[in-house]
Amino acid sequence: MVQEKTGVAGSLESCDALVMVVLSPEREGIRIELESPSMASFGGEMRKAVRETLESAGIVHCFVKVQDRGSLDCTLRARTETAARRALAVPDREKVEE
Amino acid sequence: MKAKRLRRTSLYVPGTNPGMLANATVYGADSVILDLEDGVPVSEKDAARILVRNALRAVPYRGAEVTVRVNSLSTPFGRDDFAEIIPLAPEAIRLPKCECADDVREADALMTDLELKNGIEPGTVGIIAITESARGGRNLSEIAAASPRVIALNYGAEDYTADIGAVRTKEGRELDDIRAKVIVAARIAGVQALDSVFGDVNDMDGLYAEALRVRLLGFDGKSVIHPRQISLVHRAFTPSEQETGFARRVMAAFREASSRGAGVIALDGRMIDAPVVARAEKILALAEAAGCIPGER
Asked: Distance of alpha carbon B4 from its chain centroid, rounded?
């Protein structure tokens, strides 16, 4: 069975974003599911910010769900980075079982 | 310059709240405190650190001094806070739980190392030292003198009174001792003395009375926890017309006597000596900062 590692950060409060990063060895590339009131105007920039942040953290294969509530670019990047770090910090199951 | 800037109010802004972080400086406080310490639950320390770092990097803060209250280096979070925040060179960090000079020296050394690694002039980031215990209260003078980075002393009223076994009251007499210690140590070191928060955000009369009292004791400012507290504290820290008028006359008499080479100055039958002139200068600086008089000194 493939072990997925999940990290979540942020909130659904105004000006914030709730970001979930799921790491799985079976995934190919970065898939982003984005929900935002600013989708039409800033959807492209938001996806770019999420992708750049993940790549800076060394992540190239994952699923990301972003529920945006009007966050600034710096907030979205912070929430993505925190979720990514939290996912990366999940211990491997094998190691835990040892 | 940093040591002398106006800090009548220092507004706490929780490091977990993106909306408040983005608007931290719009309320008119002289200084803002982006908080990574007590305002942040342990489970969110990592998130707040990254959020505050990104805010420092991206938000065009204007009109107020921007400081960050980091976690103490005695906690598991302190070093990570320094590593993320110092490279962004906020004007100062607020260093909690200062117990002795070594606490300040340890922070100073770590800050110098991080400044050098990030191409920042060593000493750029100041320290506002916060003492929160009986031991810290006893060591305030050495804390203030431990580093040229120290620009102000502050104390945490809740932690301090809990540590000495006092009961918190609205009158605040249990704080008389620590307030006196903070003022005396700050004056000896030539740094500012900053008072703690007034916790009841609905008691505006109590806030004004306390702010006025601490100004008359010698404090340079007071921390606030809600934007609505800012204007009242500024009012308390604004000299009255009577004070300002007398200060202007003192300075005029001083200048006139100095031009004559006179050693002794009298005004309204009262001797004007160096401490009176120094007090008049401080009052005029506060009045000027509050916009009551144009810069004329």
From this structure: 10
B47 contacts A72? CB cut-off 8 A: no
CB B94 within 8 A of CB B125: no
End-to-end CA distance of chain A: 17
Considering the domain architecture, whether residues B247 and B186 belong to the same structural domain is answered as no
**Between 3.30.230, 3.20.90, 1.10.20, 2.20.25, what CATH number should domain A5-88 receive?**
3.30.230
The 10 Å CB-count burial string (b at 16+, else e) for B29-48 is bbbbbbbbbebbeeebbbbb
Q: How is B40-76 classified by DSSP, letter by letter? A: S-GGGHHHHHHHHHHHHHH----SSEEEEEPPPTTST
CA B34 to CA B253: how far, in whole Å? 44
CA A16, CA B17: separation in Å to the nearest integer? 8
- Give the residue from A11, A12, A16, A80 showing the smallest Cα distance to B18: A16
Structure tokens at B234: 């500024």
Question: Which residues are within 8 A (CB) of B274 and not within 5 positions of it... i.e. 6 or more apart?
Answer: none
Q: Which two tokens stand for residue B282?
A: 């401080």
ipTM of the prediction: 0.91
Residue B296 has pLDDT above 50, yes or no: no
Compute the distance between CA of residue B16 and CA of residue B50 in angstroms, rounded to an integer.
10
What is the domain partition of chain A in residue ranges?
Answer: 5-88
Is the pLDDT at B278 greater than 90? The verdict is: no
Look at residue B292 and tell me whether its pLDDT is greater than 70.
Answer: yes
Chain A residues 36-95 with a CB less than 8 Å from chain B: 71-75, 77-79, 81-82, 85-86
Q: What is the per-residue pLDDT across A8-56, written as a single tens digit (0 to 9) for each?
A: 999 999 999 999 999 987 888 999 999 999 999 999 999 999 999 999 9
A13 reaches B (C-beta below 8 A): yes
Cβ of B18 and A81 within 8 Å? no
Closest C-alpha among B26, B86, B91, B22 to residue B62: B26
Residues of A in contact with B19 (CB under 8 A): 13-16
Q: DSSP H helical segments within chain A, as ranges?
A: 39-56, 73-89, 93-97
| Least CB–CB distance from B51: residue in A14, A78, A86 | A78
How many CB pairs (< 8 A) connect A and B?
44
Q: Which domain covers residue B206, as residue numbers?
A: 9-237
Most B CBs within 10 Å: which of A67, A72, A77, A90, as the mutation test of the B interface?
A72
